[in-house]
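User: My collaborator and I are trying to settle a disagreement about how two of our proteins should look. Neither of us wants to argue from intuition anymore, so we agreed to look at predicted structures for both before our next call. Could you fold the first one, then the second, and keep them clearly separated?

Assistant: That sounds like a sensible way to settle it. I'll keep them separate. The first protein:
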Amino acid sequence: VSCKMTQQALGAAPEPEEPDAPTDLEKTKWLELPAMNNSALGYYSHSFKMNGNTYRNYSFGWSQKDMVAVWVAYPLCKMYSNGSVKRDDAEVWALDPNLGNDSSAPFGGYGGDYDRGHQLPFADRKCCLEAAKQTFYGTNMTPQDNGLNTGVWEAFESKVRSWAASSDTTYVVTGCTLDKPLGYTTDSYGKKMTVPSGYFKAILKYSKSSTFGQWNAAGFYYKHESGAKQQMMSIDQLEEMTGIDFFVNLSAKIGADQAVRLEAAIPSTSVWQ
């Protein structure tokens, strides 16, 4: 599970038949993936090439009705985030090639005062230009309050990168809650988009040499408002809140009993601080 610069270690996606062709995600057994049993969502993934190898970038569950991804799942380690790619070079706002015109259009921003909020941050994919550009697809964006996006949420994204930098591999699911939307806005084409009521991250990290245990997991939630307070909880509690079954491939890796205990455990502040 160590996140090294090899296809095998990263569990790289098979070479797609065409650029960004959807992967049969359930067969990959990637640890970051949640359950994909919601018939209202479409499931897709992106990969990129670097140094002659193909690596997985991120996967997502897309709600066509809401024009946002309910979740975006991805591995994270220093290989992905350490790099020299500059945002100005990567900032090519684009339709997602997986969906074409069915993707949300982020070119000119959204109606109202909403930011184009990344779910997978650009700063998590500075390893190469191809990986970085994929973070600017419309499917990786939601209409997000500027005060949240550039405030506590951005600070939390930086914290997640610090956890990943000190771990062998970290697996992240970032998403949004849509059950009680704050309203609606429009994309660059005038398509209606749901404004989420909140944002979450489910995080699983593996550290072979950790004194706190090799595997640790935690859930985090923020209301969609400026200066929102972080709510930290177990994975089980986040699953109850969101209705998403996270890390469904974990039990095959560490055993069903250990996976159950890990997801039920209340996160320790000594690990998640």
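The second protein, kept apart from the first:
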Amino acid sequence: MEQKLLALTEELLQKTYHIKSTFEEVKKANQERDFYQEVKPFADDVKGKLDQWEPLAIEWLKNNPVKYLHPQQITHTAENLDMISIQCFFPKTSLTRFRHYAESVEYVLKNLLNAIQKKASSI
């Protein structure tokens, strides 16, 4: 379970980086991307990973409490990542709001990743 959670968390962190760079490109070009060719397939991929990751992360946190990380944050992170995976393709998305959600997602993913790696190395 721990290896799968580690792999999914790393993948979601990479997706978050991709989302942030896509948003910057879309904002700069001021042109939204094709919904059926790009937006939907990408958002569906992220959603599929989130559906696997969220229950694993919550279960792992219940068994391995981490300071400043709570199961509720995992749920919010999944919701926020799902949301920004769509919003990043549209230039009308608020820059401030998008950054807030993206940074929040990145913070939780990095902290969870560090906690899993720390536990794995202490065994």
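Some points you might bring to the call about the second protein. The mean pLDDT is 96. Residues 115 and 121 are 10 Å apart (CA to CA).
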